[in-house]
């Protein structure tokens, strides 16, 4: 898994949204903190410093493309429609999680 601090910060922000916390009551600040620490420990962290404008409908998604390039990923695995619609970028295949699971041995 390849991540940047920008992506980790977005995960933290999303998990702390009131509607997410209301829906998933077990997501306490401590639980979210442990999850963020796990992501940092078990991911390849890249700087996220490339300057690219790829995802025109949602430029905030560019951070995912940037991390994939910096980390030399083969796949971006996502459910984000704006990324899925790209299908690929610079040789990086963009697929849904269910499709990726089918590729695993």
Describe the structure.
By secondary structure, the protein is α/β, with parallel strands linked by helices. The chain has one domain. The chain has helices at 5-15, 18-23, 29-41, 62-70, 81-84, 97-103; strands at 2-4, 44-46, 75-77, 88-89, 92-95. The radius of gyration is 15 Å and the shape is globular. 48% of the residues lie in helices and 14% in strands. The strands form two sheets. Strands 3-5-4 form a three-stranded mixed β-sheet. Strands 1-2 form a two-stranded parallel ribbon. The mean pLDDT is 96.
Task: Summarize the SSE layout with pairings.
Layout: E1 2-4, H1 5-15, H2 18-23, H3 29-41, E2 44-46, H4 62-70, E3 75-77, H5 81-84, E4 88-89, E5 92-95, H6 97-103
Parallel strand pairs: 1-2, 3-5
Antiparallel strand pairs: 4-5
Structural class: alpha/beta
Rg, nearest Å: 15 Å
Q: Please give the count of helices.
A: 6
Judging from the principal axes of the Cα atoms, what is the shape? globular
Average pLDDT, all residues: 96
Could you tell me the number of beta strands?
5
Element string (H = helix, E = strand): EHHHEHEHEEH
Low-confidence stretches: none
Into how many domains do the coordinates divide? 1
Cα distance, first to last residue?
17 Å
Residue fraction in strands? 5-15%
Helix content: 40-55%
Read across the widest sheet, the strand sequence of neighbours is 3-5-4
Largest sheet: number of strands, sense, barrel closure: 3 strands, mixed
Descriptive tags:
alpha/beta; 48% helix; 105 residues; two-stranded parallel ribbon; 3-stranded mixed β-sheet
């Amino acid at each position: 898994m390849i991540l940047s601090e920008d992506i980790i910060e977005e995960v933290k922000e999303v998990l702390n949204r009131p509607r997410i916390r209301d829906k998933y009551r077990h997501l306490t600040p401590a639980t979210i903190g442990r999850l963020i620490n796990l992501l940092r420990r078990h991911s390849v962290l890249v700087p996220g410093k490339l300057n690219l404008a790829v995802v025109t409908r949602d430029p905030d998604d560019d951070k995912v493309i940037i991390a994939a390039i910096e980390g030399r990923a083969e796949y971006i695995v996502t459910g984000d429609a704006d990324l899925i619609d790209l299908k690929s970028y610079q040789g990086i295949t963009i697929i849904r999680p269910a499709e990726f699971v089918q590729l695993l041995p």
